[in-house]
Amino acid sequence: MKIAILAGDGIGPEIVAQAVRVLEALRSDGLKFELEPGLLGGCAVDATGEPFPEATRRLVSDADAVMLGAVGGPQYDTLPREQRPEQGLLSIRKTLNLFANLRPAVLYPELANASTLKPEVVMGLDILIVRELTGDIYFGEPRGIEQRRGQRVGYNTMIYSEAEIRRIAKVAFQAARKRNRRLCSVDKMNVLECTQLWRDVVTETAQDYPDVELSHMLVDNAAMQLVRNPRQFDVVVTGNMFGDILSDEASMLTGSIGMLPSASLDDRNKGLYEPIHGSAPDIAGKDAANPLATILSAAMMLRYTFDEEAGASRIESAVKKVLASGYRTQDIYEPGTKKVGTAAMGDAILANI
Ligand code: IPM
Ligand code: MG
């Protein structure tokens, strides 16, 4: 197996280094893979002028899985859009056809007080957000900013084909089958035709999954319900943009965005694994970032691409033990726990693998 390692920008290299140590520890236990580094995002722009250079395209196309840190930084925000780091991320998702983005939001009981919501609201939280990742307004054409009648107008296109909706719906129904068999589909069908089609196609797809209980929710209500009573959700399926927003919201229920891993899969379980947070330039290079989302992303890689459930569980139990022993990076720190840096958090995980 070949894993491409794209550390990216900001805190990316620090957090990916810890996930790599965890993978290496499992390798010495018999897991077989090669790691190959590559450039994506701002670091790629600096080196080659492009956020997703040809060499990286070849690397990730040949790899079985990709581990990604984070991309972006304020120094790139004024570049033309096609040269921005975020474009590298969108291109890699599109190139590899990674349409299914799984974002689990799980509350570790030890972190109940780190959440901004009351512990009794979030205790036991375990949601899986299934976000469509290669369509919607993110990729829709036409798009642009142009002059019309003496002023600038900006526009984008929200578009989904029924095939795109059906394939992500299937992923979500199948995921629900492995969990509590409840699926909530989120749309804005009261206003947007595109999401009326979304609702229709998800409803049709449900006929093949009579054992899964399907409900529908408008996105504004879903945003509210996530903070009002988040435990009502099991699996949530939604489009690219609503999924982007709701997954950031869900992350805060778990105490910190630094805790949420993700998997982005194609139809053959090739995957890109990354924390859902960004490159956090303000704390980059300070050994302050939380590496747990990235380490948990490595566990998802073992589970989904390599079918190595045992290795995945070992990583996840190590995370639980380390949190139970009181280790905390600054984002989840509270008085009475032990504040550690990025590398020391990695040490603690390794000691428990
Ligand atoms: C995410 C990020 C990206 C997205 C950005 C960096 C392009 O917010 O992975 O959630 O919007 O998909
Ligand atoms: Mg996002």
Kindly describe this structure.
This protein is an alpha/beta fold. The chain folds into two domains: 1-106 and 260-353, 3-Layer(aba) Sandwich (Isopropylmalate Dehydrogenase), CATH 3.40.718; 126-252, Isopropylmalate Dehydrogenase, CATH 3.40.718. It contains twelve helices and 14 strands. The longest helix has 16 residues, at 12-27.
Brief account:
The protein has 12 helices and 14 strands. It is of the alpha/beta class.
The assembly state of the depicted protein chains is single chain
Number of domains: 2
Taking all residues together, what is the mean pLDDT? 96
Overall radius of gyration:
20 Å
| Major sheet size, sense and barrel closure | 10 strands, mixed
**Per CATH, which architecture of the largest domain?**
3-Layer(aba) Sandwich
Helix proportion range: 25-40%
Q: Determine the CATH topology of the largest domain.
A: Isopropylmalate Dehydrogenase
Bound molecules: 3-isopropylmalic acid, magnesium ion
Order of neighbouring strands in the sheet with most strands: 2-1-3-12-11-4-5-10-8-9
Distance between the termini: 21 Å
Helix segment tally: 12
**Beta-strand content bin:** 15-25%
How would you spell out the order of helices and strands? EHEHHEHEHEEEHEHEHEHEEHHEEH
For the record, what CATH class of the largest domain applies?
A: Alpha Beta
Note the overall shape: globular
SSE-based structural type: alpha/beta
- In CATH, what is the homologous superfamily of the largest domain? Isopropylmalate Dehydrogenase
